[in-house]
Structure to design on (275 residues):
């Protein structure tokens, strides 16, 4: 049967004659033809389903081999069934960070007014961490927990890697009370950067609340840290201690209360560039 026609009229005429031929076909023969067509359609449907399933498997395999460059999640401590996937919900900051890949940008939205306790060290490694309030109302609170060992009171904190970044917008960071009032603090830092590393810290509309023993971060030997603070309150505690390494500090519209300071040096050998 020819498949190309000079005109549309010729094509329509051919289709009309084919329809007439099928209509005039004996019932038994027509039934066989219709059965063969149905079988062919079923085979095509099965093949399409197999292709679709294979496409899903391939996509999942590629995603596993090539990590996402960004990770986003909402942190909701009250969610009874968190999805715990990229783009979903998690109960804790620690769970979300652990679910992300090393070296990616991790954007976590914390529900307003919620308390987010830190009850273990959170290894952020080489990730870039962005913490942001979601919803109207009071700032979410990241409340650092404490524990005691032979060296005294200790603080659960963030543990960054060789090159680390943290940005926070509308977040409150709150230090704990001592578990043993007779002992001092071991390492009272929220963002405890190792020696010989680099870190970038930026606050906007945040509050850092603690006593004079606490700093948000430090500069260990050979470390370089930058701290930017806009519309941020330092209540009783210190933003950065540049005792040994080098700090670059930029601040605007900061509020210092109850002895809070943006930057100090608790030892010799450190350097700071500040406005």
């Amino acid at each position: 049967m020819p498949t190309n026609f000079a005109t549309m009229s010729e094509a329509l005429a051919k289709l009309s004659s084919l329809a007439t031929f099928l209509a005039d076909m004996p019932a038994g023969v027509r039934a066989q033809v219709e059965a063969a067509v149905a079988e062919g359609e079923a085979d095509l449907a099965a093949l399409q389903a197999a292709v679709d399933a294979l496409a899903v498997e391939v996509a999942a395999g590629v995603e596993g081999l090539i990590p996402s460059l960004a990770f986003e999640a909402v942190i909701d401590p009250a969610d009874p069934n968190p999805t715990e996937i990229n783009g979903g919900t998690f109960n804790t900051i620690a769970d979300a960070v652990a679910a992300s890949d090393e070296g990616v940008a991790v954007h976590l939205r914390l529900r307003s007014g919620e308390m987010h306790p830190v009850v273990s060290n959170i290894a952020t490694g080489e990730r870039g961490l962005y913490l942001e309030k979601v919803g109207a109302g009071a700032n979410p609170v990241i409340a650092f927990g404490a524990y005691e060992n032979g060296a005294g009171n200790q603080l659960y904190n963030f543990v960054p890697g060789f090159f680390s970044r943290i940005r926070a917008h509308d977040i409150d960071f709150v230090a704990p009370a001592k578990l043993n009032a007779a002992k001092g603090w071991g390492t009272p830092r929220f963002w405890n950067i190792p020696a010989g590393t680099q870190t970038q810290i930026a606050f906007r509309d945040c509050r850092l609340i603690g006593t004079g023993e606490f700093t948000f971060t430090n500069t260990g030997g050979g470390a370089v840290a930058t701290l930017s603070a806009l519309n941020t309150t330092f209540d009783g505690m210190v933003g950065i201690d540049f005792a040994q390494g080098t700090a670059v500090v930029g601040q605007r519209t900061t509020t210092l209360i109850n002895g809070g300071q943006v930057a100090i040096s608790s030892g010799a050998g450190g350097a700071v560039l500040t406005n």
User: Anything to note?
Assistant: Residues 27-65 form the longest helix (39 residues).
